[in-house]
């Protein structure tokens, strides 16, 4: 039995927290035992830059203290540290230095998809990202663009691993049934950078039998703006449901035909809502941001969804209408997506890859 010190958020909301919560619950511990440290700072949802710095530093001192406390009483074989980048690079560097000093094998698991842009920006954060990565034995990334970029850096190319997230498909039985492609959903945070405005604008020109269902929280000013854009269609062809619990959101998605995520969010990484839609046999329309092209492309290069340009309402409308006008072809895409998620993103498959990476790390 090998011991893994898993450093990841245990509170707050967001994709990395949700992923870590599932990992702690579902990762098989017959070969590797997890010890956990919370790396999330305690802060309000809306906080100033100065407030972020202060809470981040407070969290850093706590994290270092908790890690050292565990290391004093327990033999740790692997440090598995998660990160969302940005201002967390100082924390990542410090954890990596602790591992180097104590000769502990280490992994930096990057849960963000703007690594190429960050490093190529030649900013302080970009420099800090590179410096922190160099402290670790393995670097796990979610998307192929980040993987290929890091492969070009001599000091990192032998450390980088492409490790997608997964979804629990246990006891799930789904068959593709013919759809009319009239029920379109957006499920997520209602932010301008998630492409919600462009999606509402696209609805103005699609077939009048198509309805849009918006699920998620957002700033009331922005919601008022899209309500104005929708005009008389608000509450009729365009409906807003607010935030739904995760289980209810998945059940809601199961009643839909299409999930649309026209995101250009800077830190977009690996939207779990896309995997959930694919696993339910739904059509996905999204952009080429971060890992999304990997998710919506089969091993043979075939489409498992529809990719559109960012900030392009015209392409969104065309994609939505295409599904409605070509339901048989759209059903075939949904079938390929269902097979892709079963073969590549089932938790058992993903966790087997994690364990392989652990073994490789310990045999070096």
How would you name the CATH homologous superfamily of the largest domain?
Glycogen Phosphorylase B
> What is the fold-level CATH name, i.e. the topology of the largest domain?
Rossmann fold
What is the strand tally?
A: 12
User: What's the overall average pLDDT, rounded?
Assistant: 94
Strand order of the largest sheet: 2-1-3-4-5-6
Helix count, per DSSP? 14
Helices and strands: which structural class?
A: alpha/beta
Instruction: Tell me about the largest β-sheet.
Output: 6 strands, parallel
- From the coordinates shown, what is the CATH architecture of the largest domain? 3-Layer(aba) Sandwich
Strand content: 15-25%
Q: What is the string of helix and strand elements?
A: EHEHEHEHHEHEEHEHEHEHEHEHHH
Question: What overall form do the CA principal axes indicate?
Answer: globular
Q: What is the class of the largest domain in the CATH system?
A: Alpha Beta
Estimated radius of gyration? 21 Å
Q: How much helical structure, as a percent, in the residues?
A: 40-55%
Which stretches are poorly predicted, pLDDT < 50 over at least 5 residues? Answer: none
Give the tally of structural domains: 2
Gap between N and C termini? 18 Å
What this model shows, in words?
- This protein is an alpha/beta fold and 364 residues long.
- The chain folds into 2 domains: 182 residues, 3-Layer(aba) Sandwich (Rossmann fold), CATH 3.40.50.2000; 163 residues, 3-Layer(aba) Sandwich (Rossmann fold), CATH 3.40.50.
- It is 45% helix and 15% strand.
- The protein contains 14 helices and 12 strands.
- A 6-stranded parallel beta sheet has the order 2-1-3-4-5-6, sandwiched between helices. Strands 9-8-7-10-11-12 form a 6-stranded parallel beta sheet, with helices on both faces.
- Helix 7 links the parallel strand 7 and strand 8.
- Helix 3 runs parallel beside helix 5, helix 7 packs parallel to helix 8 and helix 7 crosses helix 12.
- The chain is globular.
- It starts with a strand and ends with a helix.
């Amino acid at each position: 039995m090998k011991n893994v010190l898993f450093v990841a958020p245990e509170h707050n909301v967001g994709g990395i927290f949700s992923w870590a919560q599932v990992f702690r619950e579902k990762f098989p511990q017959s070969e590797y035992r997890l010890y956990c440290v919370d790396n999330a700072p305690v802060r309000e949802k809306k906080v100033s830059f100065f407030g972020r710095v202060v809470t981040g530093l407070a969290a850093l001192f706590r994290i270092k203290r908790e890690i050292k406390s565990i290391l004093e009483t327990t033999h740790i074989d692997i440090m598995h540290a998660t990160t969302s980048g940005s201002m967390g690079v100082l924390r990542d560097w410090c954890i990596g230095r602790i591992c180097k000093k104590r000769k502990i094998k280490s992994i930096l698991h990057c849960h963000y998809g703007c690594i190429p842009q960050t490093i190529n920006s030649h900013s302080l954060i970009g420099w800090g990202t590179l410096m922190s990565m160099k402290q670790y034995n393995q670097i796990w990334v979610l998307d192929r663009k980040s993987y290929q970029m890091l492969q070009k850096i001599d000091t990192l190319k032998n450390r980088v691993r492409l490790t997608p997230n997964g979804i629990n498909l246990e006891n799930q039985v789904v068959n593709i049934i013919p759809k009319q492609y009239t029920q379109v959903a957006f499920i997520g945070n209602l932010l301008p950078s998630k492409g919600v405005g462009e999606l509402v604008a696209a609805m103005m020109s699609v077939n009048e039998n198509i309805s849009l269902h918006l699920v998620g929280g957002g700033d009331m000013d922005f919601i008022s703006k899209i309500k104005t854009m929708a005009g008389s269609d608000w509450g009729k062809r365009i409906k807003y449901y607010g935030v739904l619990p995760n289980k209810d959101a998945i059940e809601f998605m199961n009643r839909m035909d299409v999930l649309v995520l026209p995101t250009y969010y800077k830190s977009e990484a690996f939207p779990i809502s896309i995997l959930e839609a694919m696993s339910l046999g739904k059509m996905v329309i999204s952009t080429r941001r971060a890992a999304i092209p990997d998710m919506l492309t089969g091993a043979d290069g075939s489409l498992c969804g529809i990719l559109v340009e960012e900030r392009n309402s015209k392409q969104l409308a065309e994609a939505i209408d295409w599904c409605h006008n070509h339901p048989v072809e759209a059903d075939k895409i949904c079938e390929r997506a269902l097979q892709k998620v079963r073969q590549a993103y089932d938790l058992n498959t993903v966790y087997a890859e994690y364990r392989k990476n652990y073994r490789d790390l310990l045999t070096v």
